[in-house]
């Protein structure tokens, strides 16, 4: 037997003997209760969907953060490798330039012996007359100029211990000049490849 108190609509007066108005009211109440239950279920589902969407968005944000971190790390690695390669290229270019200069200086050093022979021949008057030796001397000196090999050291120049090697000092005062040149000095471009061997004297 059903207990009247178990009927949620018992207090609404919608019993078996209720009239049409009471029955309609009871039906309306039941519909409202059903609608409320449906709305509650829909709200709960919406909250669940929102929570699930929030979890999904959080996972996407975490993945984006991880990918950005990896990208930043790879970018820094690329910058470091690029800088190391640029430094390597500069070192290689500098070493190549130095090797070329040393090679030219070595060749120039061998040519200077021939230049000294021509200077001695000129001092003895062997190059005064036009002839094969004079023509050779002119061509050889032009070659030195083309290679940017220039000589220095002449009588009367101020003595410079950085580029002049004194084998004798006949000066008596503080001011010193070159009194005689025993061997000319040479530069390759701006690089000193041989000092001049001189005798120091007083200014004339």
Helix/strand layout:
Elements: H1 20-123, H2 132-146, E1 149-152, E2 164-169, E3 177-183, E4 185-188, E5 191-194, E6 196-201
Parallel strand pairs: 2-6
Antiparallel strand pairs: 1-4, 3-6, 4-5
Helix pairs in contact: 1-2
Subcellular location: Cytoplasm
Biased composition (Low complexity): 8-30
Family: Belongs to the GrpE family.
In words, what does this structure look like?
With 204 residues, this protein is α+β, with helices and mostly antiparallel strands. It folds into two domains: 55-147; 149-203, Nucleotide Exchange Factor Grpe, Chain A, domain 2 (Roll). The chain contains two helices and six strands. It has helices spanning 20-123, 132-146, and strands at residues 149-152, 164-169, 177-183, 185-188, 191-194, 196-201. The longest helix is centred in the middle third of the chain and has 104 residues, at 20-123. The chain is rod-shaped, with a radius of gyration of 53 Å. Residues 63-73 have a biased composition (Basic and acidic residues). It is found in: Cytoplasm. It holds the Pfam family GrpE. Residues 8-30 have a biased composition (Low complexity).
């Amino acid at each position: 037997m059903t207990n009247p108190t178990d009927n949620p609509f018992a207090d609404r007066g919608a019993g078996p003997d209720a009239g049409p108005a009471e029955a309609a009211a009871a039906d309306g109440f039941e519909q409202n209760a059903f609608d409320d239950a449906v709305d509650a279920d829909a709200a709960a589902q919406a909250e669940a969907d929102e929570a699930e969407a929030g979890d999904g968005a959080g996972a996407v944000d975490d993945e984006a953060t991880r990918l950005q971190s990896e990208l930043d790390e790879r970018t820094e690695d690329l910058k470091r490798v690029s800088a190391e390669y640029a430094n390597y290229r500069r070192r290689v270019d500098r070493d190549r330039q130095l090797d070329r200069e040393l090679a030219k200086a070595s060749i120039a050093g061998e040519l200077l012996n021939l230049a000294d022979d021509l200077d001695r021949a000129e001092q003895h008057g062997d190059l005064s007359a036009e002839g094969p030796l004079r023509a050779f001397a002119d061509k050889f000196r032009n070659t030195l100029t083309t290679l940017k090999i220039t000589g220095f050291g002449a009588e009367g120049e101020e003595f410079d211990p950085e580029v002049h090697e004194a084998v004798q000092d006949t000066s008596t005062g503080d001011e010193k000049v070159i009194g005689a040149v025993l061997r000319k000095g040479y530069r390759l471009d701006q690089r000193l490849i041989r000092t001049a061997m001189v005798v120091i004297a007083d200014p004339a």
